[in-house]
Automatic annotation (TrEMBL):
Belongs to the diaminopimelate epimerase family. Catalyzes the stereoinversion of LL-2,6-diaminopimelate (L,L-DAP) to meso-diaminopimelate (meso-DAP), a precursor of L-lysine and an essential component of the bacterial peptidoglycan. This is Diaminopimelate epimerase. It is found in: Cytoplasm. PROSITE patterns: DAP_EPIMERASE (PS01326). The keyword S-adenosyl-L-methionine does not apply. Its EC number is 5.1.1.7. It comes from Desulfoscipio gibsoniae DSM 7213. Keywords: Amino-acid biosynthesis, Cytoplasm, Isomerase, Lysine biosynthesis. SUPFAM superfamilies: Diaminopimelate epimerase-like. GO terms for molecular function: diaminopimelate epimerase activity. It catalyses: (2S,6S)-2,6-diaminopimelate = meso-2,6-diaminopimelate. Homodimer.
Amino acid sequence: MLFTKVHGLGNDFVLVNKNEEKNLPGDLAGLAIKVCHRNFGVGADGLVLIEPGKEADIAMQIINSDGSEAEMCGNAIRCVAKFAYEQGLVRKTKMAVETGAGIMVPELVMENGAVIAVRVDMGTPYLEREQIPMAGPAGQVINEPLAVDNDVFNITAVSMGNPHCVIFVPDVAAVPLEHWGTRVETHPAFTRKTNVEFVQVLNEKEVRMRVWERGAGPTLACGTGACATAVAAVLNGYTGRTVRVHLYAGALDIEWATDNHVYMTGPAEQVFTGNYPIG
Ligand SMILES: N[C@@H](CCC[C@H](N)C(=O)O)C(=O)O
């Protein structure tokens, strides 16, 4: 299986062009688990499959490293847009990408003919309407307490097509990510499980975030998580609508614009190409 290893701020993916690979196994979950394994596979947070879109320039599918499928991935979509342009699959710097969360619109930021960043229209956020016990009549969960074993977290639930639970903390470096992340991810309040973001507000324009991803565990960055974080920071009155979200390997710039769309800008990198044995 021909693949390209890509990443956005260290959130890494095995990217496969389905047009080049006609013999993919039917069990894509099993393939993702194998190929993403850090010791026995290529190593990645997820497997991303692309093909020509039915209603857009290109379509992408994201499967987490545990084999579960996600609706959307912010870091992957930047990589997909750059890859599609550089491979000549899409000959436009602004393109429409079909995802499980609807059509998103990345735009390449070019300098001297090279892609230096990608700005993505990530669509409109909505406040989770899952069966969360403490949700009000409108289903909104903004700064509501959630009991998790012996801890109580004040959470804000935001969907960017995929679910996010944002928790503001005074010191993000002190968060026991593994211990808290896995418990919140699998808390029965979240019917589809959830991604979990721990966020420290630095000032009204900047926050620092660490993430525990649904289906992948701790990752170095999460694009949809950064968008959800910015929306949650605005809703809680911590920041303005333009927020720089600092992550382990750099930052994503997020704007929750007046058209209610969230725009994310950040890098996308190709690391290497390879051929993974299947079958
Ligand atoms: N890392 C991604 C999100 C990938 C999917 C997520 N784990 C989920 O299950 O929703 C991003 O950059 O947005």
